[in-house]
Design brief:
The structure holds two protein chains of two kinds.
Chain A lengths: L1 H4 L2 H23 L6 H26 L7 H18 L4 H24 L5 H20 L4 E2 L8 H4 L2 H5 L7 H19 L1 H17 L5 H27 L1 E2 L7 H11 L11 H20 L4 H26 L1
Antiparallel strand pairs in A: 1-2
Helix pairs in contact in A: 2-13, 3-9, 3-10, 3-11, 3-12, 3-13, 4-5, 4-6, 4-11, 5-6, 5-11, 9-10, 10-11, 12-13, 12-14, 13-14
Chain B lengths: L5 E10 L2 E11 L4 E5 L6 H8 L7 E6 L2 E2 L5 H6 L2 E4 L11 H5 L6 E4 L2 E5 L1 H14 L15 H13 L5 E5 L7 H16 L3 E5 L3 H7 L2 E6 L2 E7 L5 H9 L18 E10 L3 E9 L3 E6 L5 H8 L7 E6 L2 E3 L4 H6 L2 E4 L3 H5 L6 H6 L18 H14 L16 H14 L4 E5 L7 H16 L3 E5 L3 H7 L2 E6 L2 E7 L5 H8 L9
Parallel strand pairs in B: 3-10, 3-11, 6-9, 9-10, 15-20, 15-21, 18-19, 19-20
Antiparallel strand pairs in B: 1-2, 1-4, 4-5, 7-8, 11-12, 13-14, 13-16, 16-17, 21-22
Helix pairs in contact in B: 8-17
The chains are: A mainly alpha, B alpha/beta.
Chain lengths: ~325, ~500
């Protein structure tokens, strides 16, 4: 146990987790409303969408890439679910499938642009970000699509399966889905061929290529998986709002990247964990929630979030320097 | 005889305990072209970098115009009138020729009492003046990236001259030039001579030196061996001085009595100037040496056969069958492995652990349970990796150690393990002992011999001649993208290899 605690990997996670706990202690002392069950559920609920998006980003960032399109891709997937469910009136599972498949398809396109056409990830996904934003508006006719014909759609996010089994724990489904996505992603990253190549690509892409691995193929797979996960985020947000809001989405990508970075994943690739990303996402939402409860003005909340991101990355740099 | 421009006496330099230069003497006269020769790693570039203020000397004396000087930085060297044209071009491709020449000392225009704006007109005029002096037709406003490599080389020379250099160091200036461009360069050098500039000219190309150089100094193992007038020294004498060391410690494993069948046959390999009509065969159990000077095209051939770089033409047969190799994965599928000269960039994912690096080329083999999901069996990887750690005597505290924390020799063994685990039996070793200490070198040699005895077919590319002589059953020598000769193990000597390695196409020896 002692040995485990002082491994550098563990220490980083403890540092991030420690900051999260410190924030929670601080806010519960600052405001009696913070530790209320309702508020905690609200925090969980608020983390779900950003958390899932951040997981999608984690895959891409570990390969040494970046994905700026996750926010608008999420919205595009929500709109596609709306098309399938509301416009075409198909059963709910078709909507779920459509969101995930369209997400994976768009990720596939990004992957091809990056791996085959050699467009830098920043530019390729910047283009996809705008393209998808536009498409979502075009397809929806710039108006929200409501899921009135699919009454069970809001359950995806808002009901609580866990609450039904254990009434003391009314954790919304969105959070359950976040944790399932996190666990599956963590398994993919640590246990599968895809995960191994994801880390290897970020560590030294040329060495991987010269090992006889089809680098282009695996890069495309990574972006497709990431896109599929964005589709799940699209379902979560559409279900929470009981509508696909085509104007939403832009800006989410930066929150997601911030969560990944706070969680200790390096933007230069090769390292990173899903657990870190989840903690990063929670730090972001606890901060937003706590500052709001303390009635800090919206504009100052943004300032403080910026400071926290810079601090988090700086501590990470300090830690790396100490390791050398 | 006029007083020397530069004299270097008893100069010494060590890097991290390795003595790179020892008791070096060198003298440069005004109006002289002085050739500096030696094998790769003999210390030529280090010596010139000390003269140009890039490295600090450890001991000895540097006298310029009869005055002892300390050249503490490149800037100090420029102030003293010492200019250097490096082997690699150091230009900013997006800036113009003039901007490149005057980078860091741009003439400024005053704006409201502050010198803030770059005076582009003066800049271009000054650059044009230097070009005129060099008789060079070039618009100073042209971005350097749009120039031919030869013109870029001349921009570097113009830059070195712009400091009013009286000492001009040129490190392999003709590496990228064709014969006509070389003639131009020589014309410019002769002009400089008339102006009393002393030129130090580093090159391997014997015929060029015969044309341009007045004297030659030969270096070997960090020492200056001799200085002699170029005209009265034969090529053979220079090569003998360059090679010099006794060959007593060379011991080659005998080729097995019955060499195996041909496993790799390459014909008509072609890519631009880098690879010109290269062909060779490789047998089971054989170690084939590729010798040549830096830039001769050996690495390019290996990378081309391995599919890492595209080819223009050529046929590759593996075990008798013609194969198409477009990417490394094709080569690996045919059992070809390539160990890069640059482990850290091309061989290893240094941030990842020992086991992952060993398994990197064979990951798919370890998808056992839940194959459809691509789940990797870490236990199996660990067991296999452990076997190779034992077999190759890789010294690592554990399989989960990041490879960047291991020594060069152990990192190299991990790359070897990677290809062995992948069942590759045609192995290209590009500079297998670069950056590896002497003890580990001997171990790598033993390992290569054992692999050959085990029936692997091995190509060793090395710039260290003793290494080639020690390992190879057969030596191919390359120069300027061509194979200039083949030597059996018995015929191969440092002298015979150097003769072939400096044999340029279409250039007669004077």
């Amino acid at each position: 146990m002692h040995k485990l605690l002082f491994q550098p990997q563990t220490r980083q996670k403890l540092l991030a987790f420690g900051s999260l706990l410190a924030l929670m202690v601080f806010f519960s002392l600052a405001s009696p409303n913070f530790m209320q069950a309702d508020n905690l559920v609200a925090i969980l609920q608020a983390t779900a969408v950003n958390g899932v998006l951040a997981i999608a980003c984690t895959f891409v960032i570990i390969t040494g890439g970046i994905d700026l399109s996750v926010g608008t891709l999420m919205t595009f997937c929500a709109v596609m679910a709306g098309v399938v469910l509301t416009y075409w009136g198909l059963p709910i599972w078709w909507g779920v499938l459509a969101a995930i498949l369209f997400g994976a398809l768009c990720g596939f396109v990004s992957g091809v642009l990056i791996a085959k056409l050699k467009i830098p990830p920043f530019i390729a996904t910047l283009g996809m970000m705008m393209l998808l934003k536009g498409l979502a508006l075009v397809i929806s006719g710039t108006k929200p699509i409501y899921f009135n014909d699919t009454p069970e759609f809001p359950y995806i996010s808002q009901e609580s399966l866990i609450g039904e089994l254990m009434p003391a724990l009314p954790i919304p489904n969105a959070v359950l889905i976040l944790f399932i996505v996190a666990i599956v992603s963590s398994l993919i990253l640590n246990k599968t061929l895809l995960g191994r190549y994801t880390f290897a690509l970020g560590s030294n892409e040329e060495a991987v290529r010269l090992s006889g691995v089809n680098v282009d193929f695996w890069k495309i797979v990574v972006y497709s998986v990431s896109g599929g996960i964005c589709g799940i985020a699209g379902l979560l947000i559409a279900s929470r709002l009981n509508s696909a809001q085509p104007a939403l989405g832009q800006g989410y990508e930066l929150d997601a990247i911030a969560a990944v970075v706070i969680g200790g994943t390096s933007l230069s690739g090769g390292t990173g964990t899903i657990l870190g990303t989840i903690i990063g996402a929670f730090i972001m939402s606890v901060l937003t929630n706590g500052l709001r409860i303390m009635s800090v003005a919206q504009e100052w909340q943004t300032v403080i979030t910026g400071v926290i991101i810079i601090l988090a990355v700086y501590t990470d740099i300090l830690r790396r320097r100490a390791q050398r | 005889m006029s007083a020397p421009l530069v004299s270097i006496r008893h100069l010494g330099k060590a890097f991290a305990g390795v003595q790179a230069l020892q008791d070096v003497h060198f003298e440069l006269l005004p109006g002289e072209v002085h050739a500096l020769m030696g094998e790769n790693g003999a210390g030529k570039s280090t010596l010139m970098k000390i003269l140009a203020g890039i490295y600090a000397k450890d001991g000895g004396e540097l006298v310029l115009d009869g005055r002892a000087v300390e050249v503490t930085s490149p800037r100090a060297a420029q102030a003293l009138g010492i200019g250097i044209v490096h082997q690699e071009l150091n230009l900013m491709n997006h800036l113009s020729a003039a901007q490149n020449i005057f980078i860091g000392r741009e003439p400024l225009k005053r704006l409201g009492g502050f010198g803030l704006l770059v005076d582009e007109d003066t800049l271009n005029a000054q650059a044009a003046a230097i070009f005129a002096r060099l008789n060079l037709q070039l618009d100073p406003r042209t971005p350097v990236g749009e120039l031919t490599v030869a013109k870029q080389q001349l921009v570097e020379i113009a830059k070195a001259l712009s400091f009013d250099s009286r000492v001009l160091i040129m490190d392999e200036p003709t590496a990228a030039l064709n014969n006509a461009e070389v003639a131009d360069l020589f014309r410019i050098i002769r002009q400089l001579k008339e102006h009393g500039v002393g030129v130090v000219y580093i090159s391997h190309k014997m015929d060029e030196l015969k044309q341009i150089a007045d004297r030659v100094t030969v270096m070997r193992d960090g020492r200056t061996i001799a200085t002699a007038p170029m005209a009265s020294t034969s090529v053979e004498q220079i090569i003998a001085m360059m090679v010099g060391r006794s060959l007593a410690d060379v011991a080659r494993e005998p080729l097995p009595a019955h060499p195996g069948e041909v496993v790799l046959e390459v014909r008509g390999l072609q890519r631009g100037h880098a690879i010109r009509d290269v062909g060779f065969t490789l047998r089971r159990g054989e170690i084939l040496g590729f010798a040549g000077l830096m830039g001769a095209g050996r690495t390019e051939v290996a990378r081309a056969v391995f599919g890492a770089d595209p080819l223009e033409a050529g046929e590759i047969r593996v075990r008798g069958e013609v194969v198409t190799i477009r990417a490394p994965q094709d080569a690996v599928r045919h059992g070809i492995g390539y160990l890069s000269e640059d482990r850290k960039h091309f061989g290893l994912a240094t941030g990842l652990d020992v086991a992952t690096n060993i398994a990197l080329a064979s990951m798919k083999r370890f998808m056992r349970s839940l194959r459809w999901a691509g789940v990797i069996d870490d236990g199996a990887i660990a067991r296999e990796a452990q076997q190779y750690v034992g077999r190759l005597a890789i010294k690592t505290p554990s399989l989960t150690q990041p490879v960047r924390l291991l020594s060069g020799g152990n990192q190299q063994k991990i790359v070897i393990a990677k290809w062995l685990l992948r069942n590759c039996d045609i192995l290209f070793f590009d500079e297998p002992t670069r950056g590896i200490d002497v003890g580990a070198k001997a171990e790598i040699y033993k390992l290569l011999n054992a692999l050959a005895a085990d029936g692997k077919a091995i190509v060793v590319i090395s710039s260290e001649l003793p290494e080639v002589l020690r390992l190879a059953h057969r030596v191919l020598v390359m120069c300027e993208g061509r194979i200039t000769g083949e030597l059996s193990g018995a015929e191969a000597t440092q002298e015979s290899i150097m003769q072939l390695a400096t044999r340029r196409e279409g250039a007669a020896l004077h």
